[in-house]
Amino acid sequence: MASGRMASPQSSSRQSSSLSSSPMSTRAQSLQVDSVQRWMEDLRHMTEVECMCVLQAKPIGVEEDSQQGELIVGSGVSAGDHVARNNLQTLLRRALVVSTELGKMFQRLEKGRWQRVHSTAVRANCHVRSLVHEYSAARNTPLEMQKYEKSLLEKCMELTNITERCLHTDDEFFLKSMREAIHEILTDVSDSFSNMIDMALANEIRVLIKQIESSDSLHTIGSAISNLLSLTQDGPQLCSIIAKEGAVVALFKICRQDRFRDLYAHALRTVASICCVEEGINQLEKVDGILCLADILTDDSSVEAARAEAAAVVAQITSPHHTSTQHLASFLESMHDIVTALIKLCETASCGEVFLLASAALANITFFDSMACEILLQLNAIHILLQACKDRQRVDTPYSKDQVVTILANLSVLEQCASEVLQEQGIERLLLLLGEKPSSSSPSEGAACERVQQKAAVTLARLSRDPDVAQTAIQLKAVPRLIELCRSPTERNNSDSVLVACLAALRRLAAGCPDSIEAADHQQLIKPRLVDSFLLCSNMEESFV
After folding, report:
1. Which residues 6+ apart lie within 8 Å of 173 measured at CB?
2. What is the pTM of this model?
3. Is 383:341 a contact under the CB 8 Å cutoff?
4. CA–CA separation, 178 vs 379, rounded Å?
5. Average pLDDT of 513-542?
6. Are 395 and 444 in contact (CB under 8 A)?
7. Mean of the pLDDT values across residues 125-149?
8. Fewer CB within 10 A of the terminal residue: the chain, N end or C end?
9. What distance in Å separates the CA atoms of residue 517 and residue 228, rounded to the nearest whole number?
């Protein structure tokens, strides 16, 4: 905002000089006076000498970057949702700038670079004052936030003054005492600024939620949801603020109204993002969100996109990473319907993303209740999942295969699973999964491949309790592949978890068919304690093979 205001009179002057010989010159001169008056009025709020020095270094022209740095959107923007989006994005950008400056101050303070400490304090002071002034002009600032603003501005001024004092002395004792005082003030400034930004964001979020709750316009509601979704991508802290302000409640109200069916998928995607934090899941539980998800999943008239996003919410709230499982009590009441709908979605998925979301939800569900595994067996899930693995349109990445093999691993604890896997030629599929390798250097893809290999070995070990499975696996040359994974670190991407799983599967096969293992392999991989074999294989060089 500062650079734009500083440029106003000068840019107007340029414009008027080019028009001086035309009939428009009088009007141009009038415009110039008006802009100067506005600029001078604004300047009354920015009287700090240090701030003026910074402002005078700004470019004369109003460039695109400076426009993007504005907090208040120009009067030419009439759509309220566009204003809200710009306010949010700019608030986040400006907050990042201030946070970066404060971070630099901490670093330079530790190194005793006093000139740079002071110059950074001046810049941070300018940015904070500009942000506070502009935001107050754009919104009716809540009283509690005004108190934070006043305190923050006082601390920023104190920080600027105290760092300036350090420029005029070489007294080490004085500078040491000042360093401690500045560090304390800087910490207070950082905390106060974070709290103020959280309040400002909460204020903006409340505006968006009000739009969702009070508007009948699909466009306005959709735009507000888009803004919320964009905010969720900035981390768990923002998701917590969004959840506390009641976004989950507002979004489920949308998902319960037929007239907003076109917004279901968009709203549910936002809910899934918010539910990465416990506050989001708690809000979902309070509004019986699980029942709403079950209704959408089981409604044949719901479009695939809405059912896929409902599956994404299920996957999120059933994630093993959540410490609290209290919300799962109500989930069990609808579990049969949800599991049935999810396996059907896996079967009919039109693309890999839909299959991934549905299978991820199923994989998580099979972790916390054995009844889900029994339901899946009754629903012919093994056939559906193994058939999907042959369809590259549905299962096209290691991430999808990870979900499939996770479900198979959890189903394999049930005795009746073995016969169905044999019937569907599932052992062949497991051996293919043992050979899963990344197609790129992406760390996440490499990690997914490791999980696929590990869970395929675990599944094979569990199923090999059945003599028929063990015999089939040996006939399909599972033993040489498992030995290769044990002895060759690169084959298992240097993964210890894959090594342990392969050693366990190998020992299970050897227990049922001792003749399938050669003497040297038996001596190193079967006979010793598991930990000794693990240490031997984990220390092997590639040339050993």
Report:
1. none
2. 0.76
3. no
4. 71
5. 79
6. no
7. 80
8. C
9. 58
- Could you tell me the domains of the chain? 80-201 (1.20.120), 425-544 (no CATH)
Look at the block and give the residue holding tokens 């890999």.
352
SS3 of 438, please? Answer: coil
Query: In this model, does residue 103 exceed pLDDT 80?
Result: yes
- Rounded CA-CA distance 461/463 in Å is 6
Cα distance between residue 495 and residue 79, in whole Å: 54
Are the C-beta atoms of 411 and 455 separated by less than 8 Å? no
Find all residues with CB under 8 Å of 233, minimum gap 6, and list them.
273
For residue 9, is pLDDT > 60?
A: no
Q: What is the DSSP string of 62-76?
A: --HHHHHT-SSPPTT
Amino acid in position 189: V
Local structure of 437: helix, strand or coil: coil
The length of the chain is: 545
**Cβ contact 388:355 at 8 Å:** yes
- The residue behind tokens 């984990």 is 538
What CA–CA distances, in Å, run from 15 to 24, 470, 482?
A: 11, 86, 78
What does the alpha-carbon distance between residue 374 and residue 204 come to, in Å, rounded to a whole number? 47
* pLDDT at 384 (0 to 100): 96
> Could you identify the residue written with the tokens 């479900």?
407
Give the rounded distance of the alpha carbon of 429 from its chain centre. Answer: 32
